[in-house]
Specification:
The protein is mostly beta strands and 134 residues long. It contains one helix and eight strands.
Length: 134
């Protein structure tokens, strides 16, 4: 049985809104391609350029790049970001919109990020638009 995942509104490049199911967060990483791009595959070591929205499972939005009006970039697949991003985004196609449900052991673990309102043990959900590689 597949885990029940949140539904995301909007299309690539638009700020999404997440609607959560009445279910517990999945215990493992879940990756759902909402719309597949037609670009090259993301490879470990690429400098990835993305727009994203991050929300705790059935909780609050703790960060998003859409409101800032600028994408972010970072090395992917080399441990520079949380494990759920490294595992979930390497191998995706540029131009894709991907939903990631990231369990604590691939996110911020037991420590969380209190300044962002992320408690220890929180499952994180991201909608990521893969804009390109730098």
């Amino acid at each position: 049985m597949t885990a029940q995942l949140p539904e995301a509104t909007g299309s690539f490049g638009e700020k999404p809104t997440l609607t959560f199911p009445d279910a517990s967060a999945p215990a493992e990483l879940e990756v759902l391609v909402l719309s597949r791009g037609d670009g090259d595959l993301v490879e470990a070591g690429d400098d990835l350029v993305v727009h994203y929205l991050g929300q705790t499972w059935a909780g609050h939005v703790f960060d998003n790049s859409y409101d800032r009006g600028s994408s972010i970039n970072f090395p992917i697949g080399v441990g520079a970001v949380i494990g759920g991003w490294d595992e979930g985004l390497v191998g995706q196609q540029i131009g894709s919109r991907v939903l990631l449900s990231i369990p604590p052991h691939l996110g911020y673990g037991d420590r969380g990020v209190p300044a962002a309102g992320i408690k220890g043990g929180d499952t994180l959900v991201f909608v990521v638009d893969i804009v390109g590689v730098g």
